[in-house]
Amino acid sequence: MSVSTRPATSTANPLAPLAPEEIRRTTEILRAERQIDQGLRFVTVTLHEPPKREVLDHGRGDGPTPERAAFVILYDRRHQQTVEAVVSLDRGVVASWEVIDDVQPSVMLEEFFSAEEITRSDPRWQEAMRKRGVTDFSLAMIDPWAAGYDIDDPTGRRLLRPLTFVRSREDDNGYARPVEGLVVLLDMDKMEVIDVRDHGVVPLPSKAGNYAPELMFDGDNRPAFTRLREDVKPLEITQPEGPSFTVDGHEVSWQKWRLRVGYTPREGLVLHQVGYEDRGRLRPVLYRASLSEMYIPYGDPAPTHRIKNVFDEGEYGVGVLLNPLTLGCDCLGEIFYFDVTANDQEGRPVTIPNAICMHEEDHGIAWKHTDFRTEKAEVRRARRLVISCIATVGNYEYGFFWYLYTDGTLQFEVKLTGVLSTGALADGEEPRHGVVVAPGLYGPHHQHFFNVRLDMQVDGDRNSVYEVDAAAVPPGPDNPYGNAWVTKKTPLSRESEARRLIDPLVARVWYVVNPNEVNELGQPTGYKLMPGENVLPLQQEGSQAFARAQFAYKHLWVTRYDPRENYAAGDYPNQHGSPGGLLEYQKADRPLENEDLVVWYSFGAHHVVRPEDWPVMPVTTIGFSLKPVGFFDGNPALDTPRSAACHTGNGQVGHGDGHPAPTPEVAQ
């Protein structure tokens, strides 16, 4: 049976996430030095990452240990102010304290729950519910959607727009019964309802939408099948000698990969200092990799749905919404778990156990060739290291998966599942901006956009980026037979040139190369970003999406490294009406060739709902890959050992006793 282990708390490395005792100490220092009262709320407490140069120098033994510090975002509800503070844990002092004007920090967990109670107690909301035949208000399920940005909203207030659903009992799927047309506006500073707008009664859908076995076969919720499958046999994954990876605190070694697993309350899982050991030398690939933003705009102009355009990271914080993962359910095999620690609004540490899962997977054939003349075959099986976490953001689940492969490839994948945010329909009505999934119930059209920030470090700090397209050679002397094509490499020389779109018709990829390092063939060493499935926003100029989420309107952005530039939509997208982030970062139009670069990749999932997406959605995946291109002198997986189970022609590769044959030496 698989086992799970947890790492010991370790802050020996300057990039290790804050430990619980460090969060406690941060709060104590702030309370002692700034006389913080109950009106000041702790939004996030996270590591204040040291300057990159200090971290790299320290790692090489060329510099002192960087100062250990915490970065804190606070919200002063009484004065409606956002504060950024840096607390030195080494010196025990508040190193900086700055009021940030005209911004709203992310929605806090305590606001999630208080929004529900505030809404339930409002007489206007109660009257709207009675019009729909609902008198037991305890069954109302209220989702606190971020307010977005409207010029009609009161200014200077901290706002939420809850949407209402109705359960038939405590554990019922409330999304089966949306309260269509009812929109509430809350002031979270005063903890009161500002406005209730009822756009007309639409009957609650009558059919349940449950998915738990104990509820599925009950009453009118009976599905097309009448019982669970009985022909599913056990599937066990065992590693009798244990996993191939080792963990020291947050440092991971697997095969030839070396990296550090990190965490922030906003981004969730972060990878630091990803490198590959090649012939005894650790070669860097990425300094830092993280999800920098998520944006989900809905394409339905109805009153209840037009407000649905949310920055799930910048307005909520993915890291505080991570699930405690369960062995054999979320992760299968020989699992290693990392606990993570966030904070509550009093500044106390809150630990999420088993929040990050790490394990190995077999991934089919890595490479194979059969010499048909001799009937001898060589085949190797691929293996990958999986580092993952899952966040529940209201109705949706998002799984975030980093894969590291034995051939030097990295892959990032988002798995989307959970429950639709639904709408109700009058009898006989067909939705124009969605798809019916049950009687009187529809799923609106919507899209999910993600941006991953890749602080590149391919063989060192100085990199360049090329856009690479395939191009047919025009007919003529250079193409006498009409079959010739070439690759065109275009440098992205300045930030103004580095806002690019995918083009699968020319097999477009982007090379990130180190012009100062070459392989044995004289080619610059590099990695290429390979797009996967993608889309652009359909929201036009004048929409909230166009005003606030410009990062999603281009697929690739490149900026010169600046430690203050971390989020594709800016530091504070909550209630912000202008496109911060990448559009602002690139205004300087800095040169990009042979510089310290950050690559930002945006990718989108286009969701036209299907009946099969109800009552809970099958997983769909989207993402991209980073593949070595000239980084190695040949196939880096050539030294993968043979498997005892493999055969070559008429003879066995393995010994008759089941042990693999000795691995031949591979020329390096």
Q: What features would you describe in this structure?
A:
The protein contains 9 helices and 34 strands. It is mainly beta and 668 residues long. The strands form 6 sheets. It has an 11-stranded mixed sheet with strand order 1-16-17-18-19-20-32-29-28-25-26. Residues 235-638 form the Copper amine oxidase catalytic domain. Homodimer.
Layout of strands and helices, then pairs:
Elements: E1 4-5, H1 20-34, E2 40-47, H2 52-59, E3 69-76, E4 81-88, E5 93-100, H3 109-120, H4 123-131, E6 140-146, E7 159-166, E8 182-187, E9 192-198, H5 213-216, E10 246-248, E11 251-254, E12 257-264, E13 268-278, E14 281-297, H6 303-306, E15 309-310, H7 312-316, E16 335-343, E17 349-371, E18 376-393, E19 396-405, E20 410-418, E21 423-424, E22 434-438, E23 441-444, E24 446-456, E25 464-472, E26 485-491, E27 499-500, E28 509-518, E29 524-531, H8 544-548, E30 556-560, H9 582-585, E31 597-607, E32 617-628, E33 647-648, E34 651-652
Parallel strand pairs: 1-16
Antiparallel strand pairs: 2-3, 3-4, 4-5, 6-7, 7-8, 8-9, 10-11, 11-12, 12-13, 13-14, 14-15, 14-24, 16-17, 17-18, 18-19, 19-20, 20-32, 21-23, 22-23, 24-31, 25-26, 25-28, 27-30, 28-29, 29-32, 30-31, 33-34
